[in-house]
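Hi all, posting the design record for the shared folder.

TITLE: backbone redesign
STEP: 1 of 1
STRUCTURE INPUT:
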């Protein structure tokens, strides 16, 4: 009986998590997330795995199981479900967040809400949901069994012993799972390069309170919108010190609404006020909880900083609290945003200055504890860049228990093949990506992106063919007369040399000219 795990995304980068579990008769996915695009992807907002390979196993692919509601785990699900009809399983909050996405993309999907200790069967696989602590509620590890094979897939976790909501990380439960004899542990590597233990979410309360107490004017607070535990602490502080709250920004408004519906966020009725009501109050009686902790375009923070909001402008005395780590790739945007706020006389407090953010991922000592609880035959590090995955394997040298654990390095595009409880091979499939332009809702292929990059860097050359004559036009740069003559001469010299149709030949020659003369690859268009 062979079982395969194929890695579509998440091993070799932070983001785009997607794993396929496959037996001879059935298959299911764990997570389908996005990766946020940085400035090197012109016009692209998000990147998702290319799941073309799944079409070949369409008949046995049954379900997608979601570990939690972060974008790097659920952001690609609506796109996936446009291609495949799958059963969807996830925690309460995860499913609520997804339902908003389904609504926005106008797709109808039947969802299954699971809770801690639930067990489901997908063909010959049995999957148990195991609660873990993270920076969002309803996060699960998955204990996946298929006959003798026992796999523990814990994507994101930390061992929070004093979470703001819910129960502490259940150490005993993981020791029990360890005693069952786990074949492979697939586990979070994001923070394994950090020493010690990741502090508890509740540990930031006092520093956060201090920052609020020092503010004399309006306070604007921003964090990851899905972090309801962070928002809950801010609500408590505001109710304690007598500030009313305005929630502004679509992601945070949605999150607060869901949090209240699910009972994860209790806000007194008179605490929440509108923007108009806030204008009637003294500045030191108001707190705005806003979107935009990464300086995202269109977020409230970005719009205030860019002076795009008529009713909400930054001014002297305002304090902006950014309670989040900046995700690599967003540094420039956020820095520009902060500078604009200072221009208008506001001040900004971020995590460089005060301990107002903690990570949701396990540090080195927690990763070692996890290894000790589980004592698996194989450790397969996931959720990390190469340095995180390799460091995770290195940790095995520091834990010395009586079971020999083998560290397995695997990256996107790899297939791990198990026969019974033995890992018998590592194979590969072509791992590609798709690129999403969120405003247009366009999904671009690798080839589209290549063209787009050429376009951004090297512009366009348009050949308008009139039969014997042709004109040349450039977009994005200007060709001087001398070079245009050179190009025309080069075309004359090469026409008829290769056996191609006139249009193909012209395009081919123009491309060669730009490559040879300038080492550039403009997009060349032929028009009749
Ligand atoms: Zn997460």
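Okay, here is what came back for every position:
SEQUENCE:
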């Amino acid at each position: 009986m062979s079982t395969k795990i194929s890695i579509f995304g998440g091993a070799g980068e932070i983001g785009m998590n997607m794993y396929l579990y496959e037996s001879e008769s059935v298959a299911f996915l764990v997570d389908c997330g996005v990766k946020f695009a940085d400035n090197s992807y012109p016009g692209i907002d998000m990147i998702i795995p290319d799941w073309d390979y799944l079409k070949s196993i369409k008949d046995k692919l049954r379900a997608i199981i979601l570990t939690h509601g972060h974008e790097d785990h659920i952001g690609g699900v609506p796109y996936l479900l446009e291609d495949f009809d799958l059963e969807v399983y996830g925690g309460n909050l995860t499913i609520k967040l997804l339902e908003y996405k389904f609504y926005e993309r106008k797709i109808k999907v039947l969802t299954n809400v699971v809770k801690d200790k639930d067990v489901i069967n997908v063909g010959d696989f049995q999957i148990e949901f195991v609660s873990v602590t993270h920076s969002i509620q309803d996060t699960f590890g998955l204990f996946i069994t298929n006959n003798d094979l026992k796999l523990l897939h814990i994507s994101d976790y930390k061992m929070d012993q004093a979470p703001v909501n819910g129960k502490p990380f259940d150490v005993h439960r993981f020791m029990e799972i360890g005693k069952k004899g786990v074949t492979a542990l697939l586990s979070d590597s994001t923070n394994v390069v950090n020493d010690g233990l990741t502090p508890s979410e509740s540990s930031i309360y006092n520093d956060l309170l201090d920052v609020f107490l020092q503010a004399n004017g309006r306070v604007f607070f921003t964090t990851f919108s899905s972090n309801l535990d962070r928002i809950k602490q801010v609500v408590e502080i505001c109710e304690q010190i007598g500030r009313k709250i305005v929630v502004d920004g679509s992601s945070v408004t949605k999150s607060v609404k869901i949090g209240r519906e699910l009972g994860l966020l209790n806000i007194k009725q008179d605490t929440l006020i509108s923007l108009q009501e806030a204008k009637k109050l003294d500045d030191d009686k108001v707190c705005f909880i806003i979107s935009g902790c990464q300086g995202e375009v269109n977020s409230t923070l970005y719009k205030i900083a860019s002076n795009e909001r008529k009713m909400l402008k930054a001014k002297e005395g305002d304090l902006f609290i950014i309670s989040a780590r900046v995700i690599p790739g967003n540094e420039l945007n956020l820095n520009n945003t902060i500078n604009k706020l200072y221009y208008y006389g506001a001040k900004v407090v971020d995590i460089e200055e005060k301990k107002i953010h903690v990570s949701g991922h396990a540090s080195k000592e927690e990763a070692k504890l996890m290894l000790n609880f589980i004592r698996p035959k194989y450790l397969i590090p996931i959720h990390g860049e190469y340095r995180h995955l390799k460091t995770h394997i290195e940790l095995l040298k520091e834990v010395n228990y009586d079971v020999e654990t083998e560290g397995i390095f695997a990256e996107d595009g790899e297939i791990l093949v198990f026969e019974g409880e033995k890992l018998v091979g590592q194979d590969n499939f072509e791992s590609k990506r798709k690129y999403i332009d969120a405003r247009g809702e366009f999904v671009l292929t690798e080839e589209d992106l290549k063209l787009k990059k050429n376009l951004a860097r090297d512009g366009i050359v348009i050949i308008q063919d009139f039969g014997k004559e042709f004109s040349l036009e450039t977009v994005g740069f200007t060709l001087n007369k001398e070079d245009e003559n050179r190009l025309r001469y080069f075309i004359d010299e090469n026409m008829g040399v290769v056996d191609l149709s006139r249009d193909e030949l012209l395009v081919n020659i123009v491309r060669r000219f730009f490559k040879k003369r300038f080492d550039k690859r403009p997009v060349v268009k032929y028009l009749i």
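COMMENT: DSSP finds 15 helices and 27 strands in the chain.
Let me know if anyone wants the other runs.
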